[in-house]
């Protein structure tokens, strides 16, 4: 099972020890204690981490040992890579009160030998390979037990009712297992319980939250996210008078929020996102310590309570993807701690709080897809912390606030689909960290800027009233990836400098008044994938050089005045969309386009013709030769003779080919070697005959996957064929060998079986059991994430769901960055040396923006490639500095606190933000 970081830092253990009396009941002689520990070390295979355990020093001096009055009371062996079982002799340490065995590889069932550790108060078995059910008599553990953590193992079945018969229990952690039964209502009997953690158990039988949980008067922390909860939140949660932290997110809860929930005096954090809760937010709100509220992605309705304006500690308010209506209370704009305000995708109306940003360190302001009117608040960036303004798809009016002109922290401004007007202040285009400016579908006026910010990669200004010529200095926009300026009033010639943008992938200038010829030279469009210049007044021939663009997929030059023949070189393009209609083109359509796949690509060009029948395109004329010098009888005889000859030739060919195939099949079978790992009832011939395109079910970078029937009962296997180009290259050979070595020896119920491998001189096949509509990911990864980013995993040395008890890797990385921790602390220990540290930091930051909150906020793979290319100095450049100041996309540089409020796992959903990178 993937390992997660410990939910508490090491100092917590020291604190816990202070809770236990250090009364030594009985202790064996010092030499006997040493013998016990050395025997334990030997039974564990003498791990090198325990090298200090020797006869040359007393046990109380060993770093893993805690002693009280000369007796061993604590044993901390976390992360020691131990793979052998726990020996029974560990309970010969009669005074043992603390046992931490977390982050190892202990196998087998729950260690019932620990029932004999009668004074145990702290037990941590988390992050190991334990399997099977927790025993029904688990209450035989020490009656003094206060802390038990069995998280991140492979325990299954039910959580037994006996867990509720450990009277002194304060901390109960059952997260991230394979429990496929139920959890007991008897947990409500743990009157001393302070911390209950059961998240990431998606195999739980769907169950309601027991009302008995409302009796836990001392409970401060309740975390049951992604655990198949159904029904309503119990009304008697009003009894949780000590509750500070509540996370029931990513379940299937429904109904209203209990009225008393927001009246709990100690409540600080409420995460209820991604459920089916409904109704309004109950008032009055008396939980004045609330700092984080996330009710996003539910079915809530009604208005946003005025009482939210009383929450002076509120930092995060997420209400997006609901059905809230009415106005946002102006008092929310006065909150002094508010940093993240996200209410997009609701039905809110009225004006936005005018003082928003004036009184707090506002970082994220996301109000898109509502019915807001009036102007944007003037002081959104007053504290110079704002990273994004996302207000598209509203009815907002007025001009862009002047406060944004000097907002050096802002990464994205998204105001499209509103009623804004006036000119864009020149300073907006050149903001130092601006990554994307999206202001389409408004009434903005003015000319295009001569200069853009050093890292602006997306400029979208379509459907406005911009006019004038495209500036000649456009060649300096070298960082631009997407430029959309459709449906404006741009005029003049198409500048050749516009072809000098090496990172440009999308260029839309359709619906303007551009004139003159298209440049015959393209300087640097090596990444261009879409070119739309339709509905202009461009003339002259279509340049041959367009046919050399290696990545071009979309070409639309329709409704212009292009003339002359279409160059055959354009047929080299791998186009998915081509439109040359409504021009003045002539001659024959190039052979590559002369087919029905392009039946609408050449309309309204009267002088064009085709050699195949294409609707509304003239057929090219040709002279026909007469053949009337042969009589009808002779022609009939020739025809009959030809038919007979064809028949006999086909029959003879059939027998020859059939005989050849039989012989070839026997030779081919002899060339294949079969190596089995399991018992099966098919032959290699069954497999080879089934490798057809009809059986293809998937393909990837290194091979294809086939579903092959192996007998008349329609039993199937899955066959992976490694890509071949003649001989296997070294990389694929290693990949094949690794997969065979690993899967061929594994016997595990959660891992698909490798039945055999079949190989020849130039092909490799792996044959697996076939699982209909299943996924290894479903069984091996229980954490719910909607994005995975190799850059995060590369620099940290962790897996995608390897964050901590509260977070996945993505959120753990955001929290590291948001808390201001040095990035070097997050890097894999093998790459922490100073050499190229800044480039490593940049890859880490790139991973952050790739896990931004909304899909529209993340860069495309093309944009990621561009960012990676400029992490190091450009070829021929004298610039040496490639660190935070110059290298990565600017969204990375100030992500320090953008998600600082998300300090636990599963906080950020795919929809949690609108940023577009």
From TrEMBL:
Bilayer topology annotation: Single-pass type I membrane protein
The organism's place on the tree of life at top rank: Eukaryota
Primary residence: membrane
GO MF terms held by the record: ATP binding; protein kinase activity
GO cellular component: plasma membrane
Binding of ATP, residues: 721
InterPro entries in alphabetical order: Kinase-like_dom_sf, Leu-rich_rpt, Leu-rich_rpt_typical-subtyp, LRR_dom_sf, LRR_N_plant-typ, Plant_RL_S/T_kinase, Prot_kinase_dom, Protein_kinase_ATP_BS
Residues annotated as domain Protein kinase: 691-917
Keyword set, alphabetical order: ATP-binding, Glycoprotein, Leucine-rich repeat, Membrane, Nucleotide-binding, Receptor, Repeat, Signal, Transmembrane, Transmembrane helix
One of the GO biological process terms: response to other organism
Signal peptide limits: 1-26
Transmembrane feature ranges: 634-657
PANTHER family: LEUCINE RICH REPEAT FAMILY PROTEIN, EXPRESSED, PROTEIN KINASE DOMAIN-CONTAINING PROTEIN
Protein family membership: Belongs to the RLP family.
Protein name: Protein kinase domain-containing protein
Organism: Rhododendron simsii
